[in-house]
Each structure stands twice: as C-alpha cells, then as structure tokens.
Write a structure and sequence with these properties.
Among the domains are: 383-529, no CATH class; 540-691, no CATH class. 49% of the residues lie in helices and 10% in strands. The strands form seven sheets. The chain has a five-stranded parallel β-sheet with strand order 8-11-14-4-15. A four-stranded antiparallel β-sheet has the order 1-7-5-6. The chain has a two-stranded antiparallel ribbon with strand order 2-3. β18 (568-569) and β19 (576-577) form a beta hairpin. α4 packs across α5, α23 packs across α28 (655-672) and α24 (545-563) packs across α26 (598-614). It is elongated. The chain starts with a helix and ends in a 7-residue tail after the last helix.
Length: 698
Amino acid sequence: MADELISLIESRLDRQKFQDHHWSGSFWDYLAIVQQNPMVLRNAYQRAYDAIMAHGSEKYRLFKKDCVRYHFFSDPFENGSDAIYGLDFALMQLVDFFRSAAEGYGTDRRVLLLHGPVGSSKSTMARLLKKGLEAYSRTPDGALYSFSWMLDEHCGVSSAGGATRQAAATHEFPCPMHEEPLILVPREARDALLAKINEKYKPQHHGGRLRVYGEPDPFCRKIFEDLMAFYQGDWRQVMNHVKVRRIVLSEKDRVGIGTFQPKDEKNQDSTELTGDINYRKIAMYGSDSDPRAFNFDGELNIANRGVCEFIEILKLDVAFLYDLLGATQEHTIKPKKFAQTYIDEVIIGHTNEPEYKRLQSNEMMEAFRDRTIKIDVPYNIRLDDEIKIYQKSFGVERIRNIHIAPHTLEVAAMWAVLTRLEEPKKAGLALLQKLKLYNGKSIPGYTEDSVKELKEEAPREGMNGISPRYIQDKISNALVSRQAIEEATINPFMVINELESGLSHHSLLSDENTKKRFRELLAVVKEEYEDIIKGEVQRAISADEDAIRRLCTNYIENVRAYTQKERVLNRYTGRYDDPDERLMRSIEEKIDIPESRKDDFRQEIMNYIGALALDGKKFEYNTNARLYRALELKLFEDSRDTIKLKNLVSSVVDDETQAKIDVVKQRLIKQFGYNEASATDVLNYVASIFARGDSKGR
C-alpha cells in the first residue's frame, strides 16, 4: 500500500522541471545562454508585458468600439479564481501602459496607479500580475537569472594559499537584489555587449531593446571592487568567483515580488521599503557603512526584477511617497545613511476615491501626481459580466448542499448594476431599459449609436454604487440562514430581503437619499423578476410541442390565405371558409402588433417563409423568435384555465389538475434549472399573482 502511495506522489512530480528551475553554472555558461536566448535579459516591464501577451487575446466590438480581451486576466493560473469580468477597457489601458514601458517610451519611469471605488477589482489586477509573473518565470520563455559570489567564510576576499595568487571561494553569498548577471560587466564594455546581443534579439510582442541600466547594488559593488583589487584589475579572474543561477519569482519566498500595506502613520518607517543597517553585523565588519552590514530586505529591495504592489498607496506617509519618486523616475532607492541602489521593477499602487481626491487637493504632492499614470477601474455596468462574478463565488462546484434557485444571482447582479448607472437623459427611457441596452439587448427605437451616446453622456458611470463585496456578503447571509438550511435552497426573494435589510447599516452609505433610491431600485428588480418567472411558467405550461406546432400550422395557413386573398379549407366540414381573423389577432396581439400593422406583419411572415424556402430551409414553429413567443403566450392563455393555476393557492386541487401541474413542474426543473422545492415556490408565487387578477404577460 505504501509503495502505491509513493508511486502516486512520484507520478505527479516533475524532476526535470525542478532541475531546470534550480540550474546553476559559471558566468561563462550564462554568456552562452544569453547568446542562445537573449530574452533572459529583459527588464521587469518587458517581462511583465510578455507574460500578459503569452496567454493570447481576442478582439471584439462593444459600444461601437474595438476591444481586446486578454486571457491573462481570466486567471489561467488558478482555474479562474481571480478572473476579471467586464473591465476590458481598463485592462486595455493597463496593457498599453506595459507596452509603452516595454518599448522604453517613458512610462517605465512612472508609478502605475489603479483608481476606483472599493471592490472594483483593483487589488485583483495587482494580484493577477504577481501570480502571472510568478507562473511566467517558471516557463522556459520566462526564465531569468541572478548570481552569487564565491568567497571565504566571512564573506570577504582573502588568499586561498598555494603557489598561485587565488582568492578563497569556499562559501556562497547570493546577490541580495537578485540582479541580472550582466550588470557585472563594466559600463564601458556593457553597451558594446548589449549592442551585439540586440542584433539577434527579435521580441515577439514589442519593439523594445534590451537594456541593463545602473550599477551593482552596494554589496555586490564592494565585493566586485575588492576582487578587482585582489586580482589587479583582471576582470576575467573576478568573474570566476561568480556563480550564476536561475531564479523563480515568488512572493512567499520574497524573490522579485513585494507587497506593502500601510500601517498607522505613527508606526510607518521607510526602512520597510528600502532596507536597514544590521547593527549586529557592524561589530563583525567594523563599520555601519560596510554594505555587508546592511539588510536588503525592504519591499523595494526584494521586488527587484519583478513587481512591487502598494496597497492603498495614498495612505502612505509623505516620506514614503518621496522614496517612490526616485524609485520611479531614476530607478534608484536611497536608504537612510546608506548608498544609492539601482532597481528594476514595476511599481503598482491602488487607491480608492476619497484618498485620490485628497491627493488632488494637496499642492505639496504635485511631483508625485506628475509621476503617476492613473487608470480608472470602475464597477461593472454590464449585467452578464456582473453575474459571472457571483457565479465564480457561488457556482455549483462550490455550493453543493444548497440549491440556488434560477435568477437568484441575476437579480442581485441586476440591482448592483442599477445602483451604478446614471439616470438616462433620454425621455421615455427607463433605467432598467438602459441596463438592458448596455447588456446587448435590442429595444425598439434604440441603436448602437444610441448606446454610444448614453455612454458618452455619463463618463463617470460605474465609479459609484454598490460594491460586489456587499452583494457577496448578503448572498452568503442568505446561504447560512435558517430557512436556507431547513429547505436546502435559496431564492431571489431571500437575497432581496438580505440586500434591503443590510442598507440600514451599510458602513459606506450615510446619505438617506441614496439609501431610499437603492430601495426603490430593489422594487424595480423585484418587479422585473416577477415578469421573468411569469414568462417561465407561461413557457412551461405551453411547452407542449405538438400543440404549439398545430397552432403554428393553423396560423400560417390562415395568414397565407389572407395575404393571397384566398379561403381556407375546413378539415372538419370540408368547406372553404374565410381566414380566421379572430385566431390571427389573438396571436398577434400577444406581441403588441396593432390592428394598423397586422397586414405588414403577416406579409413579413410570408416573405420570411419564402426566403427560407429559396435557401432550401423549412419554416418551423420556433424559427421566428417573435412569432414563437406569441404562440407560447396564446397557448398559455388557452391552457391556463384547464390547468386551473389559480386553484394552487387554495390547496384544493383535483387529481387531473395536479397531474397537469406536475408536468409543468417537471418542465421547470428540466428546462429552467429549478429543483422540486424552488419549482413549487415559483408556481405558487405565480399562481398568487394570477389569483390577484394580474394576468399580464411579460
């Protein structure tokens, strides 16, 4: 048994990959790698851009604009757990920033600032960037290297003894900044070396050149100078003390990925960013200026070669922000009482609206504002994308023991989006209609140009409203409620009640007018949900295919006779009768075809059938969506009385009617995703609507 388990474990392990990730060799071995694969020399921005592009993209059009969806942000690293939906415009700006930086157009000297309301996926973007870089560094295309020094046990340069002049190389001391090995090539030779390498470098996704800026960090600079002095300027001999190794970016191992979160102002210390003197080592090396007595463990230090994320960046003390000025503009950091250190990393911060407004009003922070590139990250304003967020958290694969009734997540998402939209200025257009237009639904009288105009008249749309986190919290409350546990199901009304009750003590909503508006929008959502489930019950009742096919055939026969001014053969009497006007109008009225337009509509149907015939296609009852809906509603109207849906609320149902209701219930389960309990609830609720005399269709 133990052998079987061991074999199972070993079958999942990739020894070759481990060896690749832990490769080490001489500096000369590394030069051979560089010659073969110049990509290893890319800077942090070039590597980040290539990491994004490596996962591909797709083009589409939205609101009459060309859009690109980058698969990187669908989180292929953890099976979509951090996937971002509906923010492609913001993500396109983000990718453009990295493209410009990779080309060397100046954005590599700026702080990337993600700005938006709470819960708008700013931190998710940063987290995906970190995860993606980690994953990319483990691939052959994303490989990068650093180096260690081989010195004596005291991290010094001393003679190894023997006949030849040779320094001891018994102990390994890694470069504390994970720097690129070619930074050890003196500047006077480095430019010529890079020019030679760039002749072969053909980047796939951008036109940027390979660049290795700056000088080694103070620790490596001291070791290099000491070795140069020992070998009397023989650079080749110095390089024999260099051991190059592949590195894998890792936040948990503090290699190339840093994250900084502000503390309260009294406890903020810039050494957390730039490192600090190790006072215990001063006695060992004799001076606080000796780089060997310095800890290169600040977030900007350990993030070198990768990315440093600043959570709530504008809550940083002003002194911290000044540190970032040099870090971005000059690619250097200057620790207290210590030498300047070059860095190569992406600095990304995110902030909410209140902090950004304070930055704008602070004249002392003009220099910082000038060195930032701001990308607005709004909330979703497309319903389908908002639904995907909640499906990710409350999908079937995660919620196994409680059934989430159809439309539960949809109504929550609908309300969330409505709170983020501005009232349309177009007369006669309701906010719910605006939501549907944004979601790609056609509404008579409105075109793509109309949608574009609606977007242009509300440029800040999505920067206010309800956060997805609030929605997720209330859905969670519904899932753990006593009713949910007892019935093993939740429905839209349970979630709506949670959303409404939470408004009274919402921590970010103090304005009573806003709360009142949000409650009114919940009423709009509830009404829309009632229309949806009435439509589903109608479809379930009228889902007898044979019956609807017979009704369609009858309608088409009468329309054909009407348009051709002929009579219709009565199958029962054998006589020819006038077209059945009452039948035709009873169907057409279901989809609001007025009397004045009946001739046009009937001719359109016949032209449609004729066009299909020319293409060798046959007209079926469900071929034309509008006519199909009209047939469904007509059949529902004819069937409703026989099913006696109103009697459901009285609990007095005869066996025949119950059998018919059971058929409808099974259709709701099979076709619309209900379970037994939620199907019963929906039928009872729709029955209560009809019992109140509300028989209006959708």
